[in-house]
Amino acid sequence: GGFKTKTFTSVIRFRDAAIVDGDEIKIYLNDKMIEPEVSLDGAFKEFKINLVPGVNKIDFEALNEGSASPNTAQFEVYDDKGVAITNQQWNVGTGYKATIVLLKE
Questions:
Q1: DSSP classification of residue 43
Q2: Contact 9, 80 (CB under 8 A)
Q3: Which of the 8 DSSP states describes residue 80?
Q4: pLDDT tens readout for residues 13-32
């Protein structure tokens, strides 16, 4: 999904949205890997990014599907004031990517 924002930074939160079964993801920002391997837990993990003017593409690649297919990840995106931009859940297979695009105005 694509979302417009005027914020300078964004907080991305993510977790396993179903049974915690060993789901792992890789995270990219504008096609550059920023996290090579992240295990999804029931509790949210988060990271902060500095947004560049224009397109900020965040990809979450499923590295596996845990012990219960598919990879069930939930992602939340917040602006620099803590206001939610989006809250999404994806069920993706190994090798597939879920993408969030933030358009900084």
A1: S
A2: yes
A3: T
A4: 999 999 999 999 999 999 99
Q: What is the pLDDT of residues 48-57, one digit of tens each?
A: 999 999 999 9
- Work out the percent of the chain whose per-residue pLDDT is above 90: 97
Q: Which of 9, 25, 8 is nearest to 72 (CA)?
A: 25
Does the pTM of the predicted model rise above 0.70? yes
Q: Which of 19, 7, 27 is nearest to 75 (CA)?
A: 27
The residue type at 3: F
* Cβ-based neighbour number of residue 100 at 10 Å: 20
Peptide bond into 36 cis (omega under 30): no
Q: Rounded to an integer, what distance in angstroms lies between the CA atom of residue 58 and that of residue 39?
A: 17
Q: How many helices (H) and strands (E) does the chain have?
A: 0, 9
